[in-house]
Each structure stands twice: as structure tokens, then as C-alpha cells.
């Protein structure tokens, strides 16, 4: 299980999303408030973002196999990283899965950034030469990239049909759009005056946080936030 967060809006610092909130991802790495499976997220972390200085919408990533709280450079570098689209995650590895930087979200196809919060049987996922690691999340990300993000809802429903015990909370961004699914775990949204946050759990006690119903897809653009029930929703 993991915790993740996405931002779409005006450029803000990574620190303002991950470190500075009272219950940001840094705190969730050792003391999550709403995590249903596991007690902490100490098996790696990652931050992905888009820089206007890079052509073609190429995402940047900073990933590690160590706990977020142990990274000595995060507090000094994160305030200098600013972006209008961020996908970040802290990881709790499933037993038997590798603990390595390439197994930590966000994964990428060179355009999208993607995080998986959950669990899926690797046996139901096709092998992929493009997967960044051998863990379930990397294989699931490769499948989603292969199918295309516009088919995210259908892909999640199909994977759940062959693995009914799967937990399939996905969070993805491409610089101008966020997509997320709530399937088996918590997801919340906060609409701020300068943008939208999607997160596994609220990073503070702002009353504006909205809990996303299970088995729904969230589609965020600069002009709207849309909730779509997924096939098979209860």
C-alpha cells in the first residue's frame, strides 16, 4: 500500500504540497491517518513534475528506495522545485516485491506520470518489456500506458474482474490533466483557488476536502473536476 498526491493548477513548490502541510506525504510516510493496509510507507518515495524549461512536456522525476524522512536533501531542494502539475508518492512495498528506486512511483511513459496505491496479483498482468520494475505497480503502470490513459476506467474494471481482491487506486498527470481512480482505498479532492489537489488522504484539516466515492474516476482539467462512476460500481 502507498499514499499519493497530485496537483494541477498554478505553479507551486513541491515543498508546499509534500513537506509543509501538517499531514503531508512526509508525515504520511511514517504516520498516515487513513491508510487501511500497513502502518507506514518506508520503502521508497518519488516526486514527478513538469518544468516549462523542458520541451515537449517531458516529466522530471526524483525517486528513492529509502524512506522519505531519511532523505537529507529533500528539505533543501523541494522548495526550489515549482510546477503546475505534480504527482508524488510514498511507498509501502508488498511482501516479496523489490525495494528499489525503479519500483517507486511515479512511473512514466515519457509523457504521463502515474502512481498506484493498492495491490494486484502479478499473474493477471501481462509481462511487459517497458515495465520499470517487476513489482505489481510497475507492471500495472505498463499495462495502463499500453492501453492509453483515455481507457483508464475500462482498464481498471477489466483488471478487477480477473482479480476481485485487487485495490486499484491510480493517480496520473500529464502536465495539463489529472486522472485518478478510487477502487478499494481512500481518495480525496481539495479545490483551491489556485488549483486542485487529489490525495490518498487529506494533507490538512481544511473543511473543503471532498471524499471521492469508491469505484469512481476523477478527471481534472484547468476548467473542471468531473466524477465518473466506473462499471461494476456498487
Please state the structural category.
Answer: alpha+beta
Mean pLDDT, rounded to whole units? Answer: 94
In spatial order, strands of the major sheet run: 3-2-4-1-10-9-11
Radius of gyration: 16 Å
- SS summary, helix count: 5
In percent, how much strand structure appears in the residues?
A: 25-35%
Q: Report the order of strands and helices.
A: EHHEEHEEEHHEEEEEEE
Q: Which stretches of 5+ consecutive residues score pLDDT under 50?
A: none
What oligomeric state is this?
Answer: single chain
Q: Mind describing the biggest β-sheet?
A: 7 strands, antiparallel
Write down how many β-strands occur, each being a DSSP E stretch of 2 or more residues: 13
Question: Percent helix among the residues?
Answer: 10-25%
Beginning-to-end CA distance, first to last residue: 23 Å
The 3D shape can be described as: globular
What can you see in these coordinates?
- By secondary structure, the chain is α+β, with helices and mostly antiparallel strands.
- Helices cover 15% and strands 34% of the residues.
- It has five helices and 13 strands.
- The strands form two sheets. Strands 3-2-4-1-10-9-11 form a seven-stranded antiparallel sheet. A six-stranded antiparallel sheet has the order 5-6-7-8-12-13, with helices on one face.
- The longest helix is centred in the middle third of the chain and has 12 residues, at 136-147.
- The radius of gyration is 16 Å and the shape is globular.
- The model has no long low-confidence stretch (mean pLDDT 94).
Amino acid at each position: 500500500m502507498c499514499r499519493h498526491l497530485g496537483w494541477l493548477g498554478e505553479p507551486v513548490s513541491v515543498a508546499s504540497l509534500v513537506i509543509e502541510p501538517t499531514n503531508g506525504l512526509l508525515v504520511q510516510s511514517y504516520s498516515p491517518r487513513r491508510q487501511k493496509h500497513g502502518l507506514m510507507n518506508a520503502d521508497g518515495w518519488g516526486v514527478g513534475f513538469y518544468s516549462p524549461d523542458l520541451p515537449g512536456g517531458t516529466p522530471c522525476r526524483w525517486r528513492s528506495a529509502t524512506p522519505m524522512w531519511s532523505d537529507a536533501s529533500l528539505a533543501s531542494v523541494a522548495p526550489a522545485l515549482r510546477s503546475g502539475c505534480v504527482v508524488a508518492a510514498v511507498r509501502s512495498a508488498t511482501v516479496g516485491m523489490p525495494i528499489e528506486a525503479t519500483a517507486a512511483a511515479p512511473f512514466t511513459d515519457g509523457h504521463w506520470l502515474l502512481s498506484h496505491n493498492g495491490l494486484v496479483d502479478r499473474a493477471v498482468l501481462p509481462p511487459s518489456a517497458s515495465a520499470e520494475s517487476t513489482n505489481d505497480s510497475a507492471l500495472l503502470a505498463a499495462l495502463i500506458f499500453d492501453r492509453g490513459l483515455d481507457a483508464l476506467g475500462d482498464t481498471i474494471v477489466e483488471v478487477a474482474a480477473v482479480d476481485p481482491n485487487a485495490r486499484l487506486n491510480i493517480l496520473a498527470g500529464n502536465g495539463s490533466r489529472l486522472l485518478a481512480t478510487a477502487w478499494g482505498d481512500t481518495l480525496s479532492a481539495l479545490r483551491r483557488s489556485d488549483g486542485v489537489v487529489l490525495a490518498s488522504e487529506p494533507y490538512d484539516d481544511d473543511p473543503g476536502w471532498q471524499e471521492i466515492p469508491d469505484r469512481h474516476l476523477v478527471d481534472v482539467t484547468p476548467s473542471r473536476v468531473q466524477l465518473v462512476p466506473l462499471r461494476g460500481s456498487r
